[in-house]
């Protein structure tokens, strides 16, 4: 996995031992997402997915020490097997966008662009994500979280690798 910060965006590239069709499914179906998305050790609670441009993915997770987290994706563009564009946000139980408990400087929305490319039965994903409609303070805070995000996505994608081996 390669991870870098480029133009105030986190850019992650990783190769998975799975065909692109399966990789698209694990990003677009709640039955799959619940098995790998999110911080390691968190348990899934609520999950509702409306996978279409203008749709959303609203979910909750709970940490081992009991912290309950709500979040939401808002989908903008979907090209089957090729690309998914969404905003990632923290939310409340009703799906309203809120700031996370850990910072009042974390951007309200992170625009993510996921692309998938298959070669010899393996899929390379590239995930680019960065704040939109953010203040300079919010963009700076986001950039300062690089190491934390690198570790978090590394763990999340390790969980995806483990899940892909089972499906």
Task: Please describe what this structure looks like.
Strand 8 and strand 9 form a beta hairpin. This protein has a single domain, classed as START domain (Alpha-D-Glucose-1,6-Bisphosphate, Chain A, domain 4). Strands 1, 2, 3, 4, 5, 6, 7, 8 and 9 form a 9-stranded antiparallel β-sheet that branches. By secondary structure, the chain is of the alpha+beta class. The longest helix is centred in the C-terminal third of the chain and has 19 residues, at 146-164. Helix content is 25%, strand content 43%.
Give helix % range: 10-25%
Overall structural class, as computed from helix and strand content, comes to alpha+beta
The rough form would be described as globular
CATH class: Alpha Beta
Tally of DSSP helical segments = 4
Say what the CATH topology is: Alpha-D-Glucose-1,6-Bisphosphate, Chain A, domain 4
Termini separation comes to 22 Å
- How big a fraction of the residues is strand? 35-45%
Family: Belongs to the AHA1 family.
Pfam family, one: AHSA1
Protein name: SRPBCC domain-containing protein
């Amino acid at each position: 996995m390669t991870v870098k910060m480029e133009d105030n965006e986190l850019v992650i590239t990783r190769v998975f031992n799975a065909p692109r069709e399966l990789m698209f499914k694990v990003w677009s179906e709640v039955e799959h997402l619940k098995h790998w998305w999110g911080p390691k050790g968190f348990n899934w609670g609520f999950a509702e997915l409306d996978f279409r441009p203008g749709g959303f993915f609203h979910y909750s997770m709970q940490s081992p020490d009991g912290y309950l987290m709500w979040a939401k994706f808002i989908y903008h563009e979907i090209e089957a097997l090729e690309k998914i564009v969404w905003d990632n946000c923290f939310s409340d139980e009703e799906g309203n966008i809120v700031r996370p408990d850990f910072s009042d400087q974390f951007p309200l929305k992170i625009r993510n662009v996921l692309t998938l490319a298959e070669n010899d039965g393996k899929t390379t994903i590239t995930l680019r994500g960065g704040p939109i409609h953010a203040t300079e303070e919010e963009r700076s805070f986001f950039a300062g979280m690089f190491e934390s995000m690198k570790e978090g996505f590394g763990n999340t994608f390790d969980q995806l690798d483990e899940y892909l081996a089972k499906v």
